[in-house]
Amino acid sequence: MASSRPFSLTRVALATLACTSTAQAADDDAAASLPTVSISAPREGNRAELAGFGDIPLTRSPLQARVIGEEQLKDTGAQNLRALTSLDASVSDAYNSVGYWDSLTVRGYVLDQRYNYRRDGLPINAETAIALDNKSRIELLKGTSGIQAGTSAPGGLANLVVKRPDAEVRSATLAWRGANSVLGAVDLATRFGSDRAFGVRVNVAAEHLDPELRAANGKRHLFALAGDWRPAPDTLIEAEVETSRRSQPSQPGFSLLGNRVPSANGIDPRINLNNQPWSQPVVLEGQTASLRLTQRLNAEWSAKAHYGTQRLRTDDRLAFPYGCDTEGNYDRYCSDGSYDLYDFRSENERRITNALDLSLQGRFATAGLEHQLTTGVLFTRFKARFEQQIYTYAGVGSIDGNSVTPPGPADLSDNTDRDERNAELYIRDVIQLTPALSTWLGLRHTRLHRETLTTSGTESTDYRQNVTTPWVALNYEWQPGLTTYVSWGQGIESQVVPNRPGSYSNAGQALPALKSRQLEIGIKGRTDQMNWNLTAFDIDRPVYARDNSVIPGPLRSDGSARHRGVEAGVDARTGAWTWAVSAMLLHAERTDSADPTVDGQSPPNVPERVLKLQTQYAVPGLAGLNLQGGIVAESDRTLLPNDGATRIAGWARVDLGARYAQKIDTRTLVWRVGVDNVLDRRAWQESPYQFEHVYLYPMAPRTWRVSLSADL
């Protein structure tokens, strides 16, 4: 399902902070052996490298962000980025197919796989399987991201932070989940040399994949090595490399059956429509490496040079259901549950991303005002090389999963190669106007160069564009622990027209970047026992849509998608309980469209109400035992861009879990058990609309998971 695949990513969702403490496990482990220490100062909260404002904590920053740590990821059984959809109300699925890469929406906008993901702050391409075995945390920034990224969708950014050898680690994990998936992983870290100047961390993982979904067996492995060297007290050199591979058949979606929405209760969520004898797995391979030099110049200033490279290879293959020719409907399946089945194959896709960030950060005072300044330049190069693809009719399938067809003819069609080059100059400044009032300023100037060329060399595009995106905020601290802010900013977004034969007259072309903008107002509070926030936002994003006045029509700019909403979040501890609650109300609509049937409609797959709750209970009298529970609830949503009456129902899911940290001499065993969708609810979890086609994905059935981590 590359950019050339006959469908892409969509899915919309909604917002806010649902922070649970990532230090909870350490607190539980230490409770039996360490004396109680009372801390009266308010908790400052996490810091996020992705925010771009140095060491200022998120609780005092005029933006909404979330940091999800390693322990929380383990407690929830997180395997991939899709886990974020259970942890934060701003995040939902966007065509999250088993066996394929993960897709997220934030504040109702789909994050762009090519522009909205970072690794240790550098741009990466997320059109691959991203393993979490060697990641220490995930940082999620919500809202227009023009100050942090030259080109990106306006929902936000996700940053994956690599594990480093900051401490001694000797850990092994064995895990089981689903029908019979088995994982083995090792995490080793040590420091050595004079003054422990050298550090090394190794992560190795191998997994047999056998989920509850049928016909989806596969395997994956990961090897990652991270090291650092401190040759002098003010100099730090860090290097890391990662290689991974996953091979697994992917999962197509269900759809409308004629004019009716099929009952989710009548669909077995274990059915995989990609179960033909000729179906082949999607193979996602990746190699990533980076080198970072941090030099402290003096007590106030430091400089950084950070280079990263990523090499991806993909075999993208699927028995793909699409439309119903017998009834003349090409956006849904047939009334009787049958559909047209296509053989899609795009072999040996190669994507290369290189990035170099040079920055300077420090503090100074002028005219009696304190400044915290960051400035730098980011160079990014992206190259995509494809071979010709197969997308041919194979026969008629059925939603019961029992139809068998021969493969389609091996007729080759063009794909589209891409080259993209960005040079981004940026400056960010926090100015302390008074002890309580600060202004936050940002400016990013981006020089874009986009080129495309079909694999046959018959069609090409080449354009350049310079864009400047400002960001400004005012932050006022009424008293320690109570802050209000208002911010305004812009972002830019660029798109390549999907390369689907016969669908677009400008298929494969790169389109000029368009600007989005966001206004946000928020209030944040913190005490010894609680962090909370309340935020209102208004985002206006230009939309690309096909001109249907001609066939095939070009993809072009067509009005906006305006999302206005309110987020609220609370992270609290009350005795033995830890609570994390987030909720969001969202009003999303299309505006200024050339199509009157679309204008004013709610975009497909965008729920108006979302609630996510997580709780933990440290069992008194039994040190190390922690019981966990979670609720995820999303309201109904539309399926079609021009028909608000056709909807899927809202749903709610309950998850349960437990963690027990067992002390044996000087070692610790950590047992985890969990069950997702405890009540085995049946529902349509998401309804992405892509390439003028409705898809329905069922909620996964009740799924058990068990793991054991042990010190070595």
Counted beta strands? 38
If you average the pLDDT, what whole number results? 89
Distance between the termini: 41 Å
**How is the CATH topology named?**
Maltoporin, Chain A
Low-confidence stretches: 1-43
Kindly report the name of the CATH homologous superfamily. Answer: TonB-dependent receptor, beta-barrel domain
By CATH, the architecture is named Beta Barrel
Strand pairing plus helix content: what structural class?
Answer: mainly beta
CATH uppermost class: Mainly Beta
Radius of gyration: 25 Å
Count of DSSP helices?
2
Supply the number of structural domains. Answer: 1
Give the helix level as a range of percent: under 10%
How is the main sheet built? Answer: 22 strands, antiparallel, barrel
Which percent band covers the strand fraction?
over 45%
Q: What global shape is seen?
A: globular
